[in-house]
Structure formats: C-alpha cells, structure tokens
Queue: 2 jobs
Job 1
Amino acid sequence: MGRDSLRQYRYFLKDSIRKKVDFSQTDQNRGVDVPPIEKPYQTDAVRIDLVKPGEWKNIAKVDLATAIGNRRSRRIYRKIPLQVEEVSFLLWATQGVRGKIVGGHAYRTVPSAGCRHALETYLAILNVEGIASGIYRYLPLSHQLLYEFSEEQLASKIVDAVFGQPYPGNAALTFIWTAIPYRMEWRYGLAAHRVIAIDAGHVCQNLYLACEVIGAGTCAIGAYDQEKMDRLLRVDGEEEFAVYLASLGRV
Ligand SMILES: Cc1cc2nc3c(=O)[nH]c(=O)nc-3n(C[C@H](O)[C@H](O)[C@H](O)COP(=O)(O)O)c2cc1C
C-alpha cells in the first residue's frame, strides 16, 4: 500500500478540512430549510408504541461503574426473545429524544456534532416477543417503531451482508444505523463526514452499556458489504446508506 494512499485516507480522520470550508456557503447559512429531524414516513404506516422512560417496570437498576466494567463484545446469544420494554429501553438509550425540539433540532441521549443527528436506526428483528420478524425503524420523535417490511430468510440475508459473520443470524435483533449525510452537510458542508462517523461511536457505546443492564450482549459490526446491506434495507445508497451495525441478544 503506497504512502500516498495512506496519507489520503488518513486525511479523513483530521479536521484540516474545516479550514477549507467556506461556511458562509453552507445550506444552513444560505437560508435553505433545515432538513427533517427524522426520515419522513407515510402517516398510515404501521407503528408500534414503545414503552416510555418512566414507565419501565423490568429494567434493572445497574450502577454505571458495573455496566462499564462488564462491557465487552458478546457474540453468542441464547434463543430467548427480548421483550418490547427492553427494546424500548435500548432505542431510548441510543437515540431517545430528551427535552424539547427547538429550531429544527432535538436533543437526544447521545451527543451529536451541531445537534444534527444524521443517523437513522433500523432494527432487523428476529426474536422479540409480540413483534413479527422484519425490518423496522425507530421514530425518536414519537418513541415508536415503524414497520418497514418483512423479508424472507432475513437471518441468512443479514449474515450474507456481513460477509458471513454468524452472530446476527443468531441474534434477537440487529441494530443497523444508516446515515442521511445531508442532515450534517446542511450545516458543515465537506466537514460533515468525519463527525457523522464520530457520532456513530457514541450511539453504539450506549447500546453496549444498555445491553449490560438488561442481561443482553451486543457486538459492534463495522465489516459489512455496503451494497448488499443497503439493498437489504431498501435505502438508495447515496442519500442514505448503512454505516454501522450491532447484533444483540440474551446472554
Ligand atoms: C468500529 C468497530 C467495528 C467492529 N467491527 C466488528 C466486526 O465486524 N466483527 C466483529 O466480530 N467485531 C467487531 N467489532 C468488535 C471488536 O472486535 C471488539 O470491540 C474488540 O475486539 C475489543 O473487544 P471488546 O469489545 O470485548 O472490548 C468492532 C468494534 C468496533 C468499535
């Protein structure tokens, strides 16, 4: 691998790009409308109400030091379904909205550069009590789960889309985070992409810690076939594409 290529790709990790961006020309500063906080959906789409924070009955109180100390990547799952309340907790922990929506942004349980929150959360559900297998999407604003579609042989298709890594096939569900880059580009232009990647790390870390609380385990997955994963999610691969995954289940 040539040094030039390494240098070129290392550039992505640096914030040098910021000095090259003319921020007066970003869409935000040109007065273009702020993009939607969450991806729009058909109003007649099937939505499942999730259990709200404060209404949880079976989420254990585990102290933070214990959760952090126990955290590890867990790739072997028992075939016991997760409960809707647990899934509600995991979604809240990773993308839940806290507080008011002000000026086109909503503060959440995770930080995000400029509060742009350019990620969407899809769930490939295989084994959650009371929810049929299929692809769903979290709606942070209403704390609901949107039914996207069902997919024959979902387990084997996810495994295939992560280059044969077996754990998503045995998981109760897999989180698949996509980016809608324009949400961040609207504010930061070419300086948007590095911070989207940084944002994804916070989200997944909260998933790891939340899993420790409910007796589940997760494993981050950064190695996947981009085109297969985007096809599986039925996203266009340009304005929205997969960036990160995490399989999880009871341990
Ligand atoms: C960005 C990222 C991508 C990862 N991708 C994968 C993956 O594709 N497959 C996998 O089995 N583990 C993956 N992991 C998990 C790491 O292998 C794991 O975090 C590491 O071995 C340390 O183990 P620990 O998480 O138990 O501390 C990934 C972790 C991160 C943070």
Job 2
Amino acid sequence: MSNPLLENYNTPFSTAPFSKIKNDHFKPAFKKAINLAKAEIEVICNNPEAPTFENTLEALEFSGQKLNSISSIFFNLNSAETSDEIQKIAQDISPMLSAFSNDITLNKKLFKRVQLVYNIKSDLNLTAEQDMLLTKKYKNFVRNGANLTKKEKSELRIIDTKLSKLKLQFGENVLAENQDFKLHLTNKDQLKGLPESTIEAAQILAKQLQKKGWIFTLDYPSYIPFMTYADSRELRKKMAKAFGAKAFRNNDNDNQQIVLDLVKLRHKRANLLGYKSHSHFVLEERMAESPENVYVFLNDLLSKAKPAAQKEFDNLSKFAKKDEIVQLEKWDSAYYSEKLKKELFDLEEEQLKPYFKLENVIEGVFTVANKLYDLNFEEIFTIDKYHKDVKTYKVTDATDNYIAILYTDFFPRKGKRNGAWMTSFKDQWKKGLENSRPHISIVCNFTKPTNTKPSLLTFNEVTTLFHEFGHALHGMLANTTYPSLSGTNVYWDFVELPSQLFENWCYEKEALSLFAKHFKTNNIIPIDLIDKIKKSSNFLEGMQTLRQLSFGILDMNWHSKNPAVIDNVKKFESQAFKNTQLFPDVKENCMSTSFSHIFQGGYSSGYYSYKWAEVLDADAFSLFLENGIFNKQIAQKFKLNILEKGGTIKPMNLYVNFRGKKPTNTALLQRAGLLKYD
Ligand SMILES: [Zn+2]
C-alpha cells in the first residue's frame, strides 16, 4: 500500500500533503520511520572509522528526519484537528516514540562515540554552532545517566519511576479535591453582583446535577468570576478557603507527604547525576544558569516592587473601607480590585472591540513585520490544508527571496484544544548550499465571524495574536545549520523574548494607528482609549508582581537546598512567603499542596521564568523606544543576533550581542509604573 507520509511530498514547497493523508497511514508510517531512524543510528554506531564531528554528531543530528516530519504533522493535528481515532493512534504510538528515544540515550556505543569527540573538542576547530551541538548532545546523554555505573543507573530508574507515580498522584489528588467542593445556592439574593453569564452557567450546572438553584465550583470559569463579582463577602470567603485548602485537609487526597517525597527524591536524583540540587540540575540548561542568579534576580525585583505593592494594598484597603472592611482579606482582593479599576478607568471591552476586526489586526501584524524586517506575506491557495479555516501564506523578504510558509488557523472548533500557540510542520536547516526554509503555523481560538458580524477581537486577543506571531518570526527567520538548534529551539527562559517583545507594538500609538480602525467608520482608535489601555494594563502591577515573585521564591526554596530537614509543608511555605505577603495568612490553607505547576507540570525551578521573560522583553523594547519603534537598524540587530540564531549560542551572549549589555529590570519597572514609589 502506498503511503503519502513515507513518500517524498510532491507538493508546492514540499509542504505536508494533507489532502492525501488518511488516519490509517499514520501507524504504519511511524513504524517504518522509526525503523529507518534506527538503521541510520546503527550505521553511525558501526562506522569502522574513528568518530568525528561529521560522522557522529552531524550524522546523528540529521538522522530520523522522516520520523520528525511525520511526528510534526501528527501531533499538530492532534492539537488542532483531533478526533477519537487520532487520540487512539496517539496512545498507541507514544510508547513507541519514548522507547525509541530511550534507545538512543541508553545506546552505549553511540554515547562512546559522542564522548570521544567531546573529549577532544578543543582540538577540533569547531564553529560556535558546532560546539553548541556537540555540547548539547553530549549533555543530553549525561543528564540521562550515561556516565553512571550499572548500580547507579538502576537507582536512577527506580527514582524516576517513583517520581512519575508521585507526580501523577499529586495531580489526581488536586483534581479530586477540586471536584469535591461545590457551592450550592438556592436564594437569589446570594447571587448579587454576579454577571448574567456566570449565573446562567451556574444554573446549567445545577440542572445537570439535578439540583435546584445554582452551583459554583473551584474550576476557574466558575471560581474567578465568583471571586471577582459576588457581593457576599461570606460566600467569597467560603469559596476562597475551599480553594486554598485543596489537598491540605488530612484526608485521602492530602498532598503534604507527596510534596515532601517529591522534593527529597528530586534532590537525590540531582545528587546522583552530580548536581548540588534539583535547581542546579534544571538551571544548567537555562539562561539564568544557577540558583544564585535566580535568587539575585527575584530578590532585586522584590526590593523594588514591594514598596509599590504595599502602597497599592493600602489604597485598595482604603477603597474597601467604604464597605466597612476593616482588614482586607484574600477573598476581597479580586472583588475590590475590579471595583476600583472600574472607577478609575471605566474601560469596557465592548468599547475597544470595534477597532480590532480580525482582518485588520492580521494586516497590522504583517505591516509591523514589514516595517521592521522587510517581510512580505502573500496568501497562496495551492497548498494543502488540514481544515478549510486554515490560511496559507508565502513569506518573502525585500529582494523576493522565499523565507517561509506560514499557516494561520484562528477559529475554535470541535477537535481543537483551547488556547493559542505557535508550532511548525518543518524546521529550518542548512546542508551544503541548500538552506531549507521552515513551515510555521499559528493556532488560536478567536470568535468566528457570522453572516452579519465580523470577527472583532478583544484587546487580550490582539496581544495574543501579536504574541504568537512573535514566536512565528523566531521560527520563520531562523538561519542556522542544525535543525535542533533552529528557531524556537532555545532555553525556555529565553523562548518568550521574541513573542513578548512583539506584544509591545500593540500599546504604541504609531503602530495602532496603522491598523486599529473602526470596522464601520474606518476611524483610527482615539488617543484617550490608547492611554486607558496602557494605564489599565499596569493597574495593581505591584501586587501582581509581588504575587508572582512569591511563587518563584517558594519554588526555588523547595528545590535549591537540601530538603532532608523539612518536615512541615505549611511551616516551610510560611517561611518562604514571609517577605511577600500582604494579606493575613489563612491557617487552614496551603499553596504548595496544589501548586501543580511545580509538582505536577514541568515548572520546577522554572517559575521565575515568567518574570525573567518580562524583564527581557521590556529591556529589549526600551532600545526601540529610545530609537523609534520602527527603527530598522535596531530591528536588524534583533533579527541577526536573536531571531536568526536560535539556540546556536548561549542566550545571554546573544542578548548582549543585540543589546550591547546585559538586561536590567529598570525598563520593566518603568513600564509597569513601579519606579515612582522609590
Ligand atoms: Zn509564548
């Protein structure tokens, strides 16, 4: 049987042949491609010649290309256009893929060859990019235990099995606790303050559970509007306390022991691999590099943001006094923030939306990219798509060179997951004289136009589109030799720089006037609205910052020191929070027992990176602000030193090459309006 996934894609720009692909093609294609990749690796391992950079590292880098291509197509479909059938295939092939990747990292012959090259690397005259590839590949083996003795390796495997069970249990407990609580209301007076849509959702939920009245839960779509709008302080308190007590109630779902076991095992694992702590292990492959650097970063921001946060807290307390609130509590925060924001700015989404018709915003994104990087976007209709809503563009530069293919997929539908993301169907790479260009995609979930109404974006959606397009630029302009170092393949505390940087143009009059035009009158958005957008985006920024910093510090405290002596989760947490708390502590509540980011997801020793990325983008944008937001020379510098370079050089060096100096947090503090409190 012929299989389009395994043949050469005979398509324009060698794009994915979606119209020919059937679900039945995936499994056999994966099997065949894995075997192909295995055979390629066998050839490397059995090469009778002494290992060299070319016959080992480069050969390894370019092995498995067919497999990569099939994986990209498949997993992108699983995110954007999935079905029961595709999900079933994903379940079947995921173990095959992880077994294959384990086969590589545990392949002793292969590691031996890589190690031999690594040991003589200073004699090899490698380019910076080659050096990075070699180091990255070598480290990948070592970080997975390649240098350990047989006994240590089996110990590592036991720890890993325990860790994955604990993480799973942690998540299941949080979920169970989430579902365990329901606020059931039957008196209409208790709903005062809530928006119609929230009440409606609560009514539907009650009906589903065959109850009278309204039911609110700890899920965000129910919890957040309740805490923001419900007038009843008693009920807000009840909800907040239930939320904060998740997996901290000494019942079957309690996570206290799991947290302690997790951090102790992570520490042991790091020690086994030769690192001082889990944070040291994680941060070796981050721009921040070390726990010391992260602490300096967090504490410096803390010292600057705290006075502002305290002032905001005092203002909010004063504002709440009108309701005879003597002590502002955690369950008052969202409620009074919203009321104060309304009083100060009175900015409604509906006022802004007419200025952000989707087509106009896309045109705006393309225009900004053209003014900065001379890119042109031409919609083309000859490329296969996986859904009729998808649009495809050929991207060219000023001299009409082909740069990339861009797919855009903007509207929600069954089979697409929530949120917005950038991805690729094909990475960029160079071989000999060929510079093979990338196929990049952005996927969002914006309101679909109807027959009578165009798609009008909220301001949040506008910044989302700019954000994802910033990632897309990183992918499209990539210009490296090796695909695993290309585009967005960078350390993850660096990957949000291009995306967050690009969001900055949404707040500038000079950029907005290019595309923010009323969809009926064509009038440009008024300047006072732009001012309001800017000011309201900084509203209570000090308190927000303090909150983010508190999570970052808690994460680092759990993971950067020997946890042997910790025996009480709440006590340890209170100690970590002591410099960042504005609200009185709630003794029945604990954050760590439901801190899924760091105990279930992949953010351990990485929570700081949210703020880190903001510091980078503000610092980078300040150079544009000083020289003009459409300054071509600055843009060119950013393109040459950052967008084109991917992960070929350490991010701090890339950044300094662009900026002329290391980033400081001054620009962020300025942008957030936090400096005036000094
Ligand atoms: Zn992003």
